[in-house]
Amino acid sequence: MRRMKPRVVKSVGDFGFFEDLARESPQTIIVARIEDRISLEGDPIAAAQGFVARHLEQYQANPLVDYWEGLNEPDIGGKMDWYAAFEAERVRQMAAHGFKCAIGSFSTGVPEWEDIPAFLPAVRAARQHGGVLSLHEYDAPTMQRSVGAGLPGRPSYPDRGALTLRYRWWYEDYLKPQGLVIPLIITEAGVDGQVGNRPGPKGLGWRDFDGYWRDVGLGGDPLAFYLQELAWYDSELRKDSYVLGWTLFTVGPMNDHWRSFDVTPYLRQLATTVVVPTTR
């Protein structure tokens, strides 16, 4: 962080390094989340008010955070109206205390195209109070696999995807036409074997695909191939001025379940292969 001055840093639960980061790289955008899960039931306004009140002390103890996420990858099946009301009220409650929000935090492939209009009230609230949109984008066995694939009932475009680059459906079909463009941060991205209807072996993170990549002729060095995928993704996001940045999952996994996603030993290679060439 000190050497490369990353555009965005996201942390879940561990906020102790924010003062050092802000001192060494004051331009870095800090996104944070406090782990909490709730059911999408009952009164969404009361739920949002309770959510903010429950964590307010931690928000106030970490004033260097630029944007606070709320729920992580909520299960919105049939409940987008509820979730939009929750997020809009969370934005208003946080703004009353001087904080800004990253709204959404939808998992890869979510929501469907026809569900986006129901979330627009939350976008309007975020736009009014200086918030951003947060989305997650993964694919497997490569990050480019579904680029060019359309969504159900929609035409295909070479520069959009069903998983990665899915955010362009939001912006091109809804936010731009309605004058609702807000900044976007992809707060999780990478290779994730949990996506459905894909080729390749069972697995989770990129490390579980090294043998497959070799076998199908994508190169004998799995790290080099993954870095190429990340550089491609970075170059695509740079084409859209509303994208503030993105964060790769993950550095320092919280448990062994996420170990196959870990890039901690390869931060030097990430910096020299992805970050430096694209910032020159």
Annotation keywords:
280 residues; 7-stranded parallel β-sheet
Question: What would your notes on this structure say?
Answer:
This protein is an alpha/beta fold. Helices cover 35% and strands 14% of the residues. The protein contains eight helices and seven strands; from the N terminus they run βαβαβαβαβαβααβα. The radius of gyration is 19 Å and the shape is globular. It starts with 7 loop residues before the first strand and ends with a helix.
Compact overview of the structure:
This protein starts with 7 loop residues before the first strand and ends with a helix. It has helices at residues 18-24, 44-61, 80-96, 116-128, 167-175, 210-215, 222-237, 267-279, and strands at residues 8-12, 29-33, 67-69, 101-106, 132-139, 184-191, 243-246. It is α/β, with parallel strands linked by helices and 280 residues long.
Q: How many H/I helices?
A: 8
Number of DSSP strand runs: 7
The main pleated sheet reads as:
7 strands, parallel
Poorly predicted parts: none
Strand order of the largest sheet: 1-2-3-4-5-6-7
Helix content: 25-40%
H/E series, N to C?
EHEHEHEHEHEHHEH
Lay out the secondary structure.
Elements: E1 8-12, H1 18-24, E2 29-33, H2 44-61, E3 67-69, H3 80-96, E4 101-106, H4 116-128, E5 132-139, H5 167-175, E6 184-191, H6 210-215, H7 222-237, E7 243-246, H8 267-279
Parallel strand pairs: 1-2, 2-3, 3-4, 4-5, 5-6, 6-7
